[in-house]
Amino acid sequence: MTEPVLDNHCHLTADNRGIEAVKDFQRSGGTHLLVVNQPSWKLGIEADEPNDFRAVFDETVDLVERASDVLPGQAWPVLGVHPALISRLVDRGHSPDDAAELMMDGLDVAAEYAADGPAIALKSGRPHYDVAAAVWEASNAVLRHGLTLAAETGVALQLHTESTESLEEVADWAEAAGLPPERVVKHYANGRCAGVTPSVISRKEALRTAAESEYPFLMETDYLDDPDRPGAVLGPKTVPRRTKWLREEGYESAVHTAHVETPERVYGIDMQASL
Length: 275
Ligand SMILES: [Zn+2]
Prior knowledge:
By secondary structure, this protein is an alpha/beta fold. The chain contains nine helices and eight strands.
């Protein structure tokens, strides 16, 4: 019997390895993927209006369909606006509030793909680097808009944030927006993240922390599929390989947590039935 193995956060590029990376993942024992759209500027799009994001989302949806053909399970899109876009927009002369408005409108477009389409999560967040107070406030407004949209469309929200072990304030905002905090996912977590669900970067130390904690968690590579940064972050075979390693280390129940229980809890997907 095939066991489900989910990479909860990776990127694919049509012009780079694309589906070849999915085949690597599958041959290593991977079954399911959540594919997050690339930042708009990586595709050469300088967004000036919300509809500019559609090309970005459509490319991801297309890659996801092709990935599902290769996988024993399936792939799903995670769509949203990268939080670092605010700095690019401010550099191009937008005020922080003006930039935030465009990003919120972009998230509204992503939410269409969640309400009527294949996306099972939205993606938002705030800069992971130091920014001016006005940019930080505007970014938090975008993040909170993401929480509201996820609540309204009944999907999860993946967050790109500063490196932290606690997002309890964000969990309070989620609650206030009507989104269960466990449906908020901290991408690139180092093992634990109080308040929300950590998507743990699949390095041994971080995975051991997560497995020992006995809290819900997901596993990811943040594979970039970026020709300019080959070998940056982790490769597409990493989640299946580290899953095998977790089993060898005796963390069988953590494997079940990462690949069956937590995906069901966060996204409402039945991993075994979708195999
Ligand atoms: Zn990413």
